[in-house]
Amino acid sequence: MKSSFVRGDCLQILRTIPKKFPVPDFRYEWEIKKFCLENSCLYFCTVSSFAKLHEVKTQWEVLVIDEAAQLKECESTIPLQLPGHHLTILIGDEQQLPVMVKSKRLVLLGQKKELLNVQHREHPSMSLFPNWVFYENQILDGPNVKERRHERSFLQGNMFSSYSFINVAHGKEEFDNSQSLKNMVKVAVASEIVASLFKESVCSNKKVKVGIISPYKAQVYAIGEKVKNYNADSNNDFSISVHSVDGF
């Protein structure tokens, strides 16, 4: 029933289009690209790629630079030179990723800085620690993370609640051939948790995606080898991703 209404709306729009309307005659690929860019209202690219847009005849109004704290000043000036825009918004958080270049120029110019102080991702038990340590308790929890359905626990026991620390006391770090650290006791612990999650996923028919993060390449490889059989299983409802912090 819904599709018939959509089809009717589409037909109505098509009837309003003139039988004849001009279509640009393109001969080269760059002409197509230029036409698309000159008739677009939103552009997504890296700051360095903005250099290619200097030849496009269009006016810019608002420029938003994400992860601005990761840019060198010379990089940020590339999009700033484009004509027409009158508002620039720099987005970044030096508490999440360390700044590459520390500059006080914008601060000295008196530019206003806004803190986005409501988080909508983490359960309050998870946001408590970073909020206290890094943000001086200025971050508020959004209403969605306070709801009961946001609190998920796939396994029984307090250790498997929304957020917990597990102390692996008897592990020992050792170097592999590439001089990267690994800890095989922690590998075993991670593997046992994955095995329990897989068993619960099969019994409850729940779709579970597991992410395992380690700062060391050797540890990533060791854990990946230990749990690879679960990814190879025919059960598509269970998947594992093992990466370094940057890899995620």
Automatic annotation (TrEMBL):
Q: Which residue spans traverse the membrane?
A: none
CDD domains reported for this sequence? SF1_C_Upf1
> What range(s) does the DNA2/NAM7 helicase-like C-terminal domain occupy?
104-248
Known InterPro entries for this protein? Answer: DNA2/NAM7-like, DNA2/NAM7-like_C, P-loop_NTPase, SF1_C_Upf1
**Gene3D superfamilies, per this entry?**
P-loop containing nucleotide triphosphate hydrolases
Fetch the PANTHER family from UniProt. DNA2/NAM7 HELICASE FAMILY, P-LOOP CONTAINING NUCLEOSIDE TRIPHOSPHATE HYDROLASES SUPERFAMILY PROTEIN
Identification of the protein by name: DNA2/NAM7 helicase-like C-terminal domain-containing protein
